[in-house]
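Table 4 source record.
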Amino acid sequence: MKVHHLNCGTMLPRGGRLLDGQPGLFRRSPIVCHCLLIETGEGLVLVDTGFGTQGVARPAEWLGRMFLAMTSPRTVAEETAVAQIKALGLDPADVRHIVVTHLDVDHAGGLADFPNAVVHLRTKEHNMATSPSNLAEKNRYRAVQFSHRPLWSTYDEAGDDWFGFQAVRSLKGLPPEILLVPLSGHTHGHSGVAVRVGDGWLLHAGDSYLFHGQLDPAGPHCPRVSSAYQSMLQMDRRARLENVARLQELTRDHQDEIKVFSAHSPVELQALRRG
């Protein structure tokens, strides 16, 4: 399998060093939407989708005014998954499967661009997004992003152990080298996606953490505003912190076997593109 690392949406919130650890206080700090495009023998697989073409065409309706105000996204057609797949000389119609870490607007915005793809996710995440049980869940997800009736494939809490993570499982119709890894906390149904590449693994950890320094084996650290964002957006603080600790252990003990990265770190995206 061949894996491409895509940025399917750039956000530019203010925060400077309090957000990204770099000099300057009031400047805007670039944040990416790190998605994967995987070439398999049976078609293309996307991991997360970014803003999507409708996020570019009608951002207020598709992404929500609150999201726009908080993140100041750069909505440009060139960053959509569709445009980047075409730029690679591939056909977006060949995207047969999409695996989502969760259904927040910046991860699920491109689902409608691939209406014939099967969308894989945990049952908890599907239920919260499509049948919200309270106001917090209703306000978090954008129902318009699912109005095309995606071809959902949902998974309950069953599976095997994988490097200390439980209930990890393969997905229907996908190669066994692609696994869904429960990583609750940011949302109750949040997941990571592990991909076997050669002798090692990639682990897309979604929004389990935001800042690359949180997994620094020499000394985990995180700027103040980035830490505040994570706390503000979490649904289960205890689960989130437990999973961050597991990811830190994974990075420390298995860094030669597994490359862990989050959905929003430009530092990690650039490193993986170079590697």
